[in-house]
């Protein structure tokens, strides 16, 4: 059960921070990646992560996931919540992390 957390941790690490200008067509996850101050957050990696998000997350899930980077406690609260919509979001987020790891590694 802890295995899916590792890809999520990788994605969270890349997306933390804020700096670069943003392309107009970037989705919320790609924008969060481009704004990060991580050296690994190259435009091509961010585009790949954004593509993985578009394949696995709804727009609403992307917006909520982007909020996790501003408020990491929110991610923990959603992960531990028993609310159905939070469980669905967390499952989608785990799937996104696995997909991004497979596509972008």
Give structural notes:
- Keywords: Signal.
- It comes from Roseicyclus persicicus.
- This is Arginine transporter.
- The protein has one domain (about 5-105).
- Helix 4 (about 60-70) crosses helix 5.
- The chain has helices spanning about 5-15, 30-35, 45-55, 60-70, 70-80, 85-105.
- It contains six helices and no strands.
Q: From N to C, what is the helix and strand string?
A: HHHHHH
Distance between the termini: 21 Å
| Main sheet summary | none
Number of strands: 0
Q: In the residues, how many domains can be counted?
A: 1
Please count the helical segments. Answer: 6
Mean pLDDT: 82
Report strand %: under 5%
Measured as a percent range, the helix fraction is over 70%
What's the shape?
Answer: globular
Low-pLDDT regions: 16-20
By oligomeric state, this entry counts as single chain
Structural class: mainly alpha
Rounded to an integer in angstroms, the radius of gyration calculated over CA atoms is: 13 Å
Protein name: Arginine transporter
Keywords: Signal
Signal peptide: 1-26
């Amino acid at each position: 059960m802890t295995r899916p957390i590792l890809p999520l941790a990788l994605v969270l690490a890349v997306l933390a921070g804020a700096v670069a200008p943003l392309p107009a067509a970037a989705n919320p996850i790609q924008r969060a990646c481009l704004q990060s101050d991580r050296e690994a957050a190259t435009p091509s990696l961010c585009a790949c992560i954004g593509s993985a998000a578009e394949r696995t997350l709804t727009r609403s899930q992307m917006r909520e996931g982007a909020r996790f980077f501003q408020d990491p406690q929110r991610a923990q609260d959603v992960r531990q919540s028993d609310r159905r919509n939070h469980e669905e979001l967390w499952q989608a987020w785990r799937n996104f992390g696995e997909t991004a790891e497979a596509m972008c590694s």
